[in-house]
Structure formats: C-alpha cells, structure tokens
Amino acid sequence: MQDLWLEMKAEYELQGGLGKLWLAEIGRLAQQVVSKKILDRLPPSIFGFPSWDKDDLVQLVITDRLLGRNQAQYVLDTADSIDEARKILRNEINFVLSDHRVPNQVDNVWGNLEPRLLELGWENGSLESDSETELHDQIVRLILSLKRLRNKGAQRLSPLFAGPVLGDLANQIVELRPDLPSKLLIKSLRTALTIISPSLSIEDVGSIEDSLELSKDSYAKSEESLRMERGQYGSRKHEIARDICEKLNPETLEIIFQKAHGANQSDIGAVLGLTRQTSRYRIEEAQQQLLGQFKVLELDIDESREVLSAMIDILGVKLSEASA
Questions:
Q1: Which of 91, 152, 236, 263 has its C-alpha lying 20 to 30 A from 227's C-alpha?
Q2: Where are the domains of the chain?
C-alpha cells in the first residue's frame, strides 16, 4: 500500500498536478461517503445536490479544496503513508459537504434549544465514549416524544417545536446531565429529525399529484388549525384517512409520506433501495392508487386535500411511534 502513495506522489510531481491515481483514490473515498449518507437516509438536498452523484462531489473536492485552497500540496507535505493521505482526503470531502450544507431543521431546533439550555446552567462538556450510545438513544427518545408543530409548507424553516415544548426538553436534558456535549445533542437531534422527516432541508412541501392541485400548506397544519378542523367534518376526514392508510401497502404509504416532505425520485429510490427508473414507476403507481381511493369515495378536490393532509398527519405519528 505504501507503493501506491509513492506512485501518487510521483504522478503529482511528473504532471504538476492531480492525475489518474489521485482521481481514482478521491473517487473511491467519495463513493464511501456517499454510500454512508444514503444508508443514513440523508437526502442530497441537505448538501445542495439534486442527487447523490459521487462524480459531482469529486469535482467539488478538487476545485474547491485541493486546487482552490491548495490542499493537495498540504496532503503531499503532511502524509507519510497512503492511510494518512486517505484520512486527510476524507476530511477534505467532509469539508466540502459542510461548506455546501444548507440550513436545516437541525440548525433551527438547536438554535432555539441552546439558549434555553444555557439559561438552566448547561455547559458544553465531555463524556466517556462507552456511555455515549446510551445517552444518545435516551435523548432521541425524548425528542421523538415531543409534541410537534406542523410545517405550513412555506419556503422557510418551521419552528417544528413550540417554545414551551423546547423548554421542557431543555429541563429534561439538564436533569439527565448538565454537561452533555453539544456535539452529542446535535447528533441526537439529527437522528430524531431524520426519523421524523427524512427531508430536512429548506424545500417547498411537494404535491403528491399535480392534477389534484393541492395547495402546499394542505399537508401540514398547526395544532390550532387541526383543532379547528376536527369539528363537523374533521372526524370524518380522519376516519377516511385511516381507512385509506389501512388499504394501501407500506411501500405506497412510505412514498406518499416521502413525497409530502419534499423527497425527489432519487431520495425515494435511496430509501426504498430502488433504481431511479424503478422509483419513478413506483411513485406513479402510488399516485394512481391514491387517486383511485379518492375516486372510489367520490371526493372532490377540497375533500381530497383535507384527507391527504390527515393521512400525512397519521403517517407522521405512526413513524414516530414505531421509532420510539
């Protein structure tokens, strides 16, 4: 393996820059990172990408970091082995992702939670690695049990949790331990919010079927709006939504939920383990099944909108309960 690093250094000196060996190594590392993001069900839109394409990532690593910031020379000057070179290159890949990551719900929730923690005397501490997993899981369960607001679909970040709810969470965290590392808390938030909604970036809430002309704010209502709606027509709407959810298979429900939260074909394919072409077919099939249910019930556009909103509400609750 040491020979490979010597060959890469020689190639760089001979060509006066990055050659095929460097491109191959960066590509291999980028593929590992991309595969891990897909496995973690992180949509590429979090990092400003339309899809998970390792070639796009490689290009940015080269132009933004290795050439743009002369980090290739740093790798040459610092690394004494291929393992050290790979460690630095992997860091460069992560730096690119960090630079391109768009603000998301994790940033939003942490920005509202941190001041409440500080008011209670929380300090950013450290802990033994053997206790990190257990504490991480405890915090995730706390977050999943919180009562959530519903994003109205505007092109902005929803507060997700009301202020008093975050205040209660801050109290529970401090009672658990007053010096939990911020890194652990943010990691726990990311895990919980990925479970709650795999699409965490700023996106309009997409329509499951354009022909229904569903308004963007129909998928999710505030708690106050939901209470108002569950009057004369609200209970019937939710009964219909539950009935449809029971009739559709789990994959179709997953697609409906993902689409309502802004996932594209590539995101859904990654979640379901499908190719983009197959996921496109499954999405169209899910849309037709949903439309079929609406037609059987003879629902008009407004009724369809309300029932679909209730379905997303129900599916979100089921997902949280299943993960608790």
A1: 263
A2: 2-100, 105-196, 210-323
d(CA 182, CA 197) in angstroms, rounded, equals 22
Q: How far apart, in whole angstroms, are the C-alpha atoms of residue 29 and residue 97?
A: 13
CA–CA separation, 100 and 49 (whole Å): 9
> Distance between CA atoms of 119 and 114, rounded to whole angstroms?
9
111 in Cβ contact with 35 (< 8 Å):
no
Asked if 205 and 220 touch (Cβ cutoff 8 Å), the reply is yes
pLDDT tier, 109 (very low <50, low <70, confident <90, very high otherwise): confident
The dihedrals phi and psi of 201, each to the nearest 5 degrees, come to -85, 170
Question: Average pLDDT of 163-172?
Answer: 88
pLDDT (mean) for 27-36: 90
| Chain centroid offset of residue 88 CA | 26
280 bridge partner residues: none
pLDDT of residue 102: 59
Q: For the chain, what percent of residues have pLDDT higher than 90?
A: 26
pLDDT, tens digit, 9 for 90 and up, residues 265-282 = 777 777 777 787 888 888
- CA distances in angstroms from 132 to 80, 179, 185, listed in the order given: 33, 13, 10
3-state secondary structure the chain: CHHHHHHHHHHHHHHCCCCHHHHHHHHHHHHHHHHHHHHCCCCHHHHCCCCCCHHHHHHHHHHHHHHCCCHHHHHHHHCCCHHHHHHHHHHHHHHHHHHHCCCEHHHHHHHHHHHHHHHCCCCCCCCCHHHHHHHHHHHHHHHHCCCCCCCCCCCCCCCCCCHHHHHHHHHHHHHHCCCCCHHHHHHHHHHHHHHHCCCCECCCCCCCCHHHCCCHHHCCCCHHHHHHHCCCCHHHHHHHHHHHHHHCCHHHHHHHHHHHCCCCHHHHHHHHCCCHHHHHHHHHHHHHHHHHHHHHCCCCHHHHHHHHHHHHHHHHHHHHHHHC
